[in-house]
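Problem 12. The chain below contains 183 residues. Write out its predicted structure in token notation.
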Amino acid sequence: MLYTITAASPEVEDFVLELQIESNATFADLHRLIRQSCEWDDFKPATFYICDHRWRHERAIPEKSFEDDTMSEVELGDLLEDEGQRLQYLFDPDERRHLLMEVSHIAFSKHIDAPLCRRKHGQPPLLQLEKEEAPQPLTNAELLAQLNAAALADDEDDDIEPTDDDLFEIEELDVEGFDFTEG
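Solution.
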């Protein structure tokens, strides 16, 4: 199985990374691919987080740990099961800087010899910020729109049509289910 994983930064508006990697590769392999694609050295320890659809952390996969399974022990296929599954790659734990990632495509009959960066757009965030710099994170809506646009950019051959099933309609809101009290 071949995963296409799209990554974006909440700090850098036009940065998009599209990676291809086999399901039997480890999170350590994905970590090395990200570092190589962004031209980062191994300055600080990193952690992957498996996230739910609202980017809440469900499971951590650290680079080094005495308690949890580490990146080198966990294969991608053990935890990544569906297109649209989300991950966070924490590359600067001191400043809580990260990349937001999504499994944008799974090809069941395709294989590659080695993980690769299929597409890179824009400049990645700096690995280490200067003290004066403070990242201006994108809103969740802006980042989600960026991830969706990146995922659909090269999918003309995949016959995947975006749907409106997940859009929120204000008319669907049931205000009777909310308790509005002044506190």
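Discussion. The chain has one domain: 2-177. Students who got a different answer should revisit the alignment rule from Section 12.3.
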